[in-house]
Design brief:
Layout (H helix, E strand, L loop, with lengths): L7 E4 L4 H6 L1 H4 L3 H10 L2 E2 L14 H17 L9 H4 L5 E4 L41 H18 L6 E5 L2 H13 L5 E5 L2 H13 L5 E5 L16 E5 L1 E2 L4 E2 L14 E4 L16 E5 L11 E5 L1 H9 L13 E2 L2 E2 L14 H17 L1 H22 L3 E3 L11 E6 L2 H4 L3 H17 L16 E4 L6 H18 L1
Parallel strand pairs: 5-6, 5-7, 7-10, 10-11
Antiparallel strand pairs: 1-2, 1-3, 4-12, 8-9, 11-12, 13-14, 15-16, 16-17
Helix pairs in contact: 3-4, 6-10, 10-11, 11-14, 13-14
Bound molecules: pyridoxal-5'-phosphate.
Length: 478
Amino acid sequence: MAAIRFVVIVLVISSDKHRTGSPNYRRGTRENRFHGVVRKAKITREETCNDASRGLSSQLLFKHIDAWVAELADAGDLKSLVRKDVRVRAPPQVLLFTMKPTTKPNRPFFSSGPCSKRPGWSLSALGEALVGRSHRAKPAKARIQEVIDRSASILGLPEGYICGIVPASDTGAVEMAMWSLLGQRGVEMCAWESFGSGWVTDAVKQLKLENVTHHGADYGKLPDLSQINCHNDVVFTYNGTTSGVKVPHLDWIPDDRKGLTICDATSAVFAMDIDFSKCDVVTWSWQKVMGGEGAHGMIVLSPRAVERLETYSPPWPLPKIFRMTKGGKLIADIFTGATINTVSMLCVEDAVDGLRWAESIGGLPALIRRSEANLKAMADWVARTDWVDFLAEDPATISNTSICLKITADWYTALPAEEQAAKAKQLVSLLEKEGVGYDFASYRDAPAGLRIWGGATVETADIEALLPWLDWAFKQIA
Ligand SMILES: Cc1ncc(COP(=O)(O)O)c(C=O)c1O
């Protein structure tokens, strides 16, 4: 099917040069003045395809114009709006309306992990890294301890909860918790995307647990959380990074639960208001919301989780990097700066840098606000855009970090799955080539679409700058 080649706007402005000099024109904000000019445009459409439904309605076209004008006005780039060819006397002038935006995000980093570094970050942030020193040396241990202390303080961990740095990133932290704690009672395994499903595989196929209840849901949905029996142990993901679906709250976890709740919160911690009192184990990694370097995992344990560690020995062997107890006692050193094995002091330094930045901007509330502002910018755009929607079906579950979008245009949804995936990839690589946005294709196992990271290190202005490019790129692949 032939695509629309272009849309032509005929601007009926008899003398824009004179208009820009008129008193009326000088009144009001620059942006409004340009809206005024553009709204005088009469729009015609020229289509080379028979399928008129694929053309842009004039209403939609005006929406694009508005976004374009606002963007140019923001960028102070008003000259390029009133192009020379529109400003000459003889009407009507014709402007090819290809709508390639002019403003690019300052930091085009929208990956869901490793995520964008904090604003203002440069390699010089690592200048004080204790490289070449033993991680057991006093100053190195102090730096490791600083990561633990600042993390616990920013997150406001409840009294009695402990926090440690462990090997193998978030996966290491989740699996050491599963291997160390599960098997004492039944387990409720909850999964609504790829990583949660991985933990189900661990429980069923690797640990070969027998009493497992699986609470599963497709991409975009959550299982019925009220059906989860918290007198069993529970393993769940706070934010499904690959589906953009988060749990809206933890009210479904009773305070008097008998089981332990193990929460993989890697793409939620520092961006969502997690009620830690409902969790017995919380895990994350440095490269997500704080934009640190990937390598190590973080694990938080409640007093009940520590009690389980000290009173229960699983029937399977535990490799050294999973062991948190010795002789039936917690290895407390792991939670006070003496890591199980060697850490990267460069990564530690970067983690400290991120945490200091978080404190400097106002701590957890500021981090959450920044991330929610990013989601708001996306949501406003989704609301006014007719080709895209959130993958999350329930608005209360839409992630403010891994913002997953599906393409809803009729011509797109009519394509076979592989072609949909190829088109979405084409859109992303178009914008990568333009240097506008990197790494925002949906996860390989997730439905085809886009996944744009909106964590706290991403500036809302950069999300806003990306949006017109998404519209532009979508037109290119149509
Ligand atoms: C929810 C979730 N769990 C686990 C992981 C694996 O994390 P890591 O690579 O830090 O082990 C990821 C990575 O994106 C994730 O999003």
